[in-house]
Write a structure and sequence with these properties.
The protein is an alpha/beta fold. It is built from 5 helices and 8 strands. Helix 2 runs parallel beside helix 3 (72-98) and helix 3 runs parallel beside helix 4. It is globular and about 80 Å long. The relative contact order is 0.10. Bound molecules: NADP nicotinamide-adenine-dinucleotide phosphate. NADP nicotinamide-adenine-dinucleotide phosphate binds at residues 3-7, 11, 31-33, 58-61, 81, 108, 110, 153, 155-156, 158, 160-161.
Length: 239
């Protein structure tokens, strides 16, 4: 089942593409941030399929702005879309998964839950709560054979990022100098949807971006030689 809300046409298009590729898919429109819509989405899943194996909680709607511009309604929207939606969907989904003997839930988070990015305070706060909820859900749903994890993505080289032509060069702090693609995030998601041995985890998929605090040095560091016994301040390296 493919869900979309603001981008109904895109949701219907994605569904058509899955069917054209030989898969089975149904599009169900509705907001995951509205309890009545969510109930309708799961009623639809129940009536069409009689159960569920997987739930991917991908929706996010956080205001990108400095915290001085973030108003209570922005935080509430971010929490409703990321956190309340996951809780409600997990509860409704667990009922349908129970009929199949269990299932897997994966929520999409961000390394901004643990780090600080400019203008990400509203989103990052909601993602931190989402990851905490993932851990609690993992424990409470384990007796029903349902595993709950998060993919904690770094900045993704994809459609969303292309909206910001003046964005910082996030690649600079990725050791391989390349951001994860949408496909690479999908691979992490598929792993968690199929792997049995991980529960309650925030699976970091940032290509190592969170490990580095600055760009790699461009110059080869000077080493001690007879001619230059004291390396310049700040360039001495332990080998
Ligand atoms: N792009 C990145 O660099 C990055 C990095 C880390 C994590 N993430 C996370 O990855 C997920 C997807 O983000 P994206 O990159 O595709 O950015 P995006 O374009 O902002 O996507 C937001 C997604 O959430 C859905 N959504 C928002 N409000 C909804 C609602 N009330 N009900 C149902 N769906 C709703 C949107 O669908 P509709 O338009 O149909 O509402 C859209 O699919 C988000 O959780 C985001 O936080 C993204």
């Amino acid at each position: 089942v493919v869900n979309s809300f603001h981008s109904r046409q895109r949701g219907e298009q994605t569904t058509a593409e899955i069917i054209a590729a030989g898969g089975r898919a149904v599009h169900v429109w509705g907001s995951v941030a509205q309890a009545a819509h969510l109930q309708n989405i799961f009623r639809e899943i129940d009536s069409r399929f009689g159960g569920s194996d997987f739930l991917v909680s991908n929706a996010g709607n956080g205001f990108i702005a400095p915290l001085k511009d973030v108003r209570p309604e922005h935080l509430l929207k971010a929490f409703h879309t990321n956190v309340v939606a996951l809780h409600q969907a997990a509860m409704l989904g667990a009922g349908l998964m129970g009929r199949r003997g269990g299932g897997k839930i994966v929520a999409i988070s961000s390394i901004g839950a643990h780090l600080s990015f400019d203008y990400f305070g509203c989103n990052g706060t909601a993602k931190a709560a989402l990851e905490c909820l993932v851990r609690y859900l993992a424990v409470e749903l384990a007796p029903h054979n349902i595993q709950v994890n998060a993919v904690s993505a770094g900045v993704i080289d994809g459609e969303w990022l292309r909206q910001f032509p003046d964005r910082p060069r996030f690649e600079a702090v990725v050791p391989r100098q390349r951001l994860n693609s949408e496909q690479e995030i999908l691979e992490a998601l598929l792993f968690l949807l199929t792997h049995g041995g991980t529960n309650g985890a925030s699976w970091t998929a940032d290509a190592g971006a969170g490990l580095c605090i600055c760009e790699p040095i461009s110059a080869r560091p000077r080493t001690r030689t007879a001619e230059s016994p004291s390396p310049q301040r700040g360039t001495e390296h332990v080998r």
